[in-house]
Design brief:
Blueprint: H1 4-9, E1 17-21, E2 32-39, E3 43-48, E4 51-57, E5 66-71, E6 77-81, E7 84-88, E8 92-99, H2 106-123, E9 127-135, H3 148-162, E10 172-177, E11 183-190, E12 196-199, E13 224-227, E14 230-237, E15 239-240, E16 243-244, H4 250-264, H5 267-270, E17 285-291, H6 297-307, E18 314-318, E19 328-334
Parallel strand pairs: 2-4, 9-10, 17-18
Antiparallel strand pairs: 1-5, 2-5, 3-4, 6-7, 7-8, 8-11, 9-11, 12-13, 13-14, 14-19, 15-16, 17-19
The chain binds 3-(2-carboxyethyl)benzoic acid (3EB).
Organism: Amycolatopsis alba DSM 44262
Region (Disordered): 1-26
Pfam families: FkbO_Hyg5-like_N
């Protein structure tokens, strides 16, 4: 078992490598930082053969499911503390925690984030690169009659405020529904000296400036994060400014979503922080396409197949999106 000090002193690849695997594939598990199993039933984060593993309830019984695998650049130190399960490889931290189903999420979401941020800063990985917030019943009401997404956002926002200046900036994220209950959080973060840029989209109001009509505390995420040559594109939907456009119209929503991503990754926008300029939709990989109405999946799939590379890995997930009027949301990585 390597010590934390060995990890920091060994030269290694700085880029995390992410891939989608079929369940059963699991070829090279010796250098895995973590594994997220997309399947019918979720399970709490655990160490499985020493590897942080969390099951997220995102697929139906008729789908095969898949694993999102975060490859490590070398030896890993993994552990668990309370509900947190984590691993570090000297460059990156992966951390996951579950908030079990409850009447009101605000305090539990704040506490979950607070404990994760405490771990991240203590281990020396305060630069959050990418977060995923998978929220069961996202557009349902909590016991107080507040939409669970808004309830969750309030606690998350309080945690970011508590850690302002110590957790280095608000990263790219996804906030999305699941087919189960409770909230599953996971993220990757980097060391304090990592070169990390968080990007906004000129077509969209920064989410952390959304008006109060969308909830008492605004969502805490950036539109993209560019770090170590990798671009993490947040969940992106048919929102212009702060408003949902093309309500009820899947074709219009897919077009605006793709236009939003195109602008976000353009040379004009990404070129501000990436010397080589921007990207196009053909460069996207590890794409998750969230579709709220199952009957829209064939249409969305055919549009996506037109615009994405035939080599891109793309998954389609039928889950609720954080506003009832959003029909589609797309996230991706360029690595
Ligand atoms: C939006 O643009 C759509 O709450 O973490 C996208 C990405 C969305 C992340 C989050 C929410 C989140 O507002 C929803």
């Amino acid at each position: 078992m390597s010590s934390f000090v060995d990890l920091l002193n060994s030269p290694r690849e700085t880029r995390p490598n992410i891939k989608f695997e079929q369940p059963g594939e699991q070829a090279d598990s010796q250098h895995v930082l973590a594994r997220v199993a997309f399947e019918k039933n979720g399970f709490a984060p655990e160490l499985h053969k020493g590897v942080p593993t969390v099951g997220v309830p995102m697929t139906t019984e008729t789908e095969p499911g898949f694993h999102e695998v975060f490859a490590a650049s070398g030896p890993v130190v993994a552990g668990r503390e309370g509900g947190l399960v984590y691993a570090v490889d000297g460059r990156h931290l992966f951390c996951s925690i579950q908030v079990t189903e409850r009447d009101v999420y605000r305090d539990a979401a704040r506490i979950a984030y607070d404990s994760a941020f405490e771990l991240a800063t203590r281990l020396g990985y305060p630069n959050i690169l990418r977060m995923w917030n998978l929220v069961g019943g996202i557009i349902d009401d909590n016991a107080d009659g507040v939409e669970i997404y808004r309830d969750f956002c309030a606690g998350r926002s309080e945690a970011f405020a508590l850690w302002s200046g110590r957790i280095l900036h608000i990263p790219a994220a996804t906030g999305i529904g699941t087919r189960g209950n409770g909230v599953y959080l996971y993220f990757i973060s980097g060391r304090a000296d990592a070169e990390v840029h968080h990007l906004e989209n000129p077509r969209q109001t920064p989410a952390y400036h959304y008006p109060e009509s969308y909830g008492p505390k605004a969502p805490s995420f950036a539109r993209a994060t560019f770090a170590d040559g990798i671009l993490y594109i947040s969940g992106t939907a048919s929102i212009i400014g702060d408003e949902t456009v093309h309500k009820g119209n899947i074709s219009g929503q897919v077009d605006v979503t793709l236009e939003n991503i195109t602008t976000l990754i353009s040379t004009e926008n990404l070129g501000k922080v990436r010397a080589e300029g921007g990207y196009t939709l053909r460069d996207l990989d590890l794409i998750k396409v969230y579709v709220s109405r199952p009957e829209d999946i064939p249409f969305v799939r055919s549009r996506c197949e037109e615009v994405f590379s035939p080599d891109a890995r793309v998954v389609y997930l039928n889950v609720d999106i954080c506003r009832p009027d959003l029909l589609v949301e797309i996230e991706a990585i360029v690595q």
